[in-house]
Amino acid sequence: MPRSMGLQALILCGPGTNLEALSTPDEPKALLPIANRPMVWYAVDWCHRAGLSDIHLVTPPTYSKAIENALAQNPHLTSLSPKPTVLAPEDLDDSTPTGTILTLPEIDAAVSSDFLILPCDLICELPAESLIESWLLQQDDDFTKYLNPGKDSSKGGLGVWYDTTTEETIKKTETDFIVTAPLPKTPVPSPPGSLRPHLSHLVNTMTTDTLKDKTEDRLGEPKPLPIRASLIDKHPRTRMLTAHRDAHIYIFPHWLLAYARSNPNLETIAEDLVACIYPPLRTIRAGTLTPKSHL
């Protein structure tokens, strides 16, 4: 089994948006069957394959009893070892923004190390251990310091964005606007199968709806997209992508929890937290990789 390097995992088991109508207290979204298995089984199994054993299913108290019963009775979930724990913060409900979840005291008490956060509806062909390995290689260990002398000591994060322009593209698929910059070249070529060629610095991110609001006036006429001069000075080579979608898979350093608590106005992880921290958190990566599906 791969080593997880002490990472913890938070699997968000809320009602979501696309399947909210199908969620009930007795059968929440996380337990909806996909190929005869509860949806959350795939996310937990994905973590187990990477050696992650400290896994928390974060859910509103409304759904906690149903999920606990499923973990004790559903044959697919009872076979999981080690079993994930159900974490139902008292102040968490269906309308709580994802960014606010990270500020809840129950989350602060449960998370004591760097952590991975993902949705319960993820079915992904990309191995979690490959993401963790790529993240570890970008951190400030002795080898990284040797390759990048003078590199600042802040541990960064990693996120996954996937290309929606595939053969199975669905019309009107939601996309995000991301700006990326290339990573510095290393003296040693990446080994076969390495994800490093797919990694970039994440310079900016927002939904395409937000981008439209910024580039159109009230009459629908186009207007320039404001870009800070400091961004151009720091990243003279950038790519602007509009056909990628946030997979909502993140590996975050532990210090991010304190950052979230000190910024209570950050509502969502994708649109507020990641977009707000990208200037100081220069090592967040945008991987242009393709999960099998994201419901």
Note down, in words, how this protein is organized.
The chain is α/β, with parallel strands linked by helices and 295 residues long. Helices cover 28% and strands 22% of the residues. Strand 2 and strand 3 form a beta hairpin. The longest helix has 13 residues. The chain is globular, with a radius of gyration of 19 Å. The C terminus is likely disordered.
Question: Which helices and strands appear, and what pairs or packs with what?
Answer:
Blueprint: E1 8-12, E2 33-34, E3 37-38, H1 39-49, E4 55-58, H2 61-73, H3 75-78, E5 85-87, H4 98-101, H5 105-110, E6 115-119, E7 122-123, H6 128-137, H7 142-147, E8 158-163, E9 176-182, E10 200-207, H8 208-215, H9 229-234, E11 239-252, H10 255-261, H11 269-277, E12 285-288, E13 293-294
Parallel strand pairs: 1-4, 1-6, 4-5, 8-12
Antiparallel strand pairs: 2-3, 6-11, 7-13, 8-11, 9-10, 9-11
